[in-house]
Design a protein that fits this description.
Elements (H helix, E strand, L loop, with lengths): L1 E2 L5 E2 L1 E6 L6 H11 L4 E6 L6 H7 L3 E4 L7
Parallel strand pairs: 3-4, 4-5
Antiparallel strand pairs: 1-2
Length: 71
Amino acid sequence: MSKVPNGKCSADVIIAALNEEEGISLTLTKVPQKTSPNQVLVVDSQSIDRRVEIVKDLGVRIFVSGWLRQR
C-alpha cells in the first residue's frame, strides 16, 4: 500500500460477497471515497441474486468461484 497525491492510500481491493444485490452498488461507490484503488475485484461464490450483473454493469471485475457454500 502506498500514498498517492490526494493523501489516500493506494491498494488493491477485494470484496467477497454472497447475495448482496441490495448493497453492492453502495459498497462499490464508497470504495474510491476511502482509498484510491489500483483495482477492485468482487469475488462471488454462487450467488442466486442479480449481484453478478450489477457488478458487471458498474464495470468492476468479478471472479465467480466454483465453490458452493455448504449450509
